[in-house]
Design brief:
single chain; alpha+beta; six-stranded mixed β-sheet; five-stranded mixed β-sheet; 5 helices; 19% helix
């Protein structure tokens, strides 16, 4: 088991080196005129993006269907433009390196919930497990509720992008995407699929559910980048 974990960490570092320049140039890190207010976050952006209002609640937004996904039946498929496609059971997923991180959650419907403590598996570690091919440019995320959303690979591999199973020290509730959802703290939250079941690495961009309905492909909060 330790050998496997060591291989994942080594592969993650190779991916970091491969995509580090692209990640460092993304707007949520490198924008020299970000739109927002308040103290700066850990990436140098204003903590509250333009058009957002901080909330203490955590509103529930979805397609109107909350799938029942037991841990026994949960599967995560990772395939597409990768060297080693896999299908993970829950116990496989939980045996991977676990990351705890506190980040802000920005919903395109104009609310932000700050300082949310998450626990889960970095998407970068899942990518290290399957090793994206040189042709991979984007991922498509699929949910058990039929939801889809696309993310550029340089955004997906950032260290705060998690497949989270725990928040505020408790298992993620079904209404918020439990048992497992993706979070994208440097993008609007619709880029993180609830009830995630598949990650497809792609060699070209393809629109997901909301992107096909007029939402932005890129979804940068500090550019007020809500619609295409």
């Amino acid at each position: 088991m330790q050998d496997k974990l060591d291989r994942i960490i080594e592969a993650r570092m190779k991916l970091k080196t491969r995509f580090e320049k692209k990640m460092s140039e993304t707007p949520s890190i490198a924008d020299d005129r970000p739109m927002g207010t308040g103290p700066v976050n850990r990436h140098g952006m204003p903590k509250l993006p333009k058009g957002q209002t901080e909330t203490q609640k955590w509103p529930v937004l979805d397609l109107g269907y909350h799938p029942e996904v037991s841990l026994e039946n949960w599967r995560l498929t990772i395939n597409g433009e990768v060297e080693n496609p896999v299908v993970l059971k829950w116990e496989d997923f939980m045996a991977l390196p676990q990351t705890e991180d506190t980040s802000d959650f920005h919903c395109v419907t104009t609310w932000s919930k700050m300082d949310m403590p998450w626990k889960g598996v970095r998407l970068a570690d899942l990518a290290a497990l399957v090793m994206p091919k040189e042709t991979a440019t984007h991922i498509m995320c699929y949910g058990y509720d039929t939801y889809t959303t696309n993310v550029a690979i340089e955004e997906a591999l950032k260290p705060d992008v998690l497949l989270a199973h725990t928040v505020f020290g408790e298992p993620l509730e079904k209404e918020h995407g439990g048992p497992c959802r993706m979070i994208t703290p440097q993008l609007y939250a619709w880029k993180g699929s609830k009830w995630i079941k598949r990650i497809e690495f792609m060699n070209a961009n393809k629109r997901g559910f909301w992107e096909e309905r007029g939402y932005s492909d890129t979804a940068y909060p500090w550019r007020n980048d809500r619609y295409s």
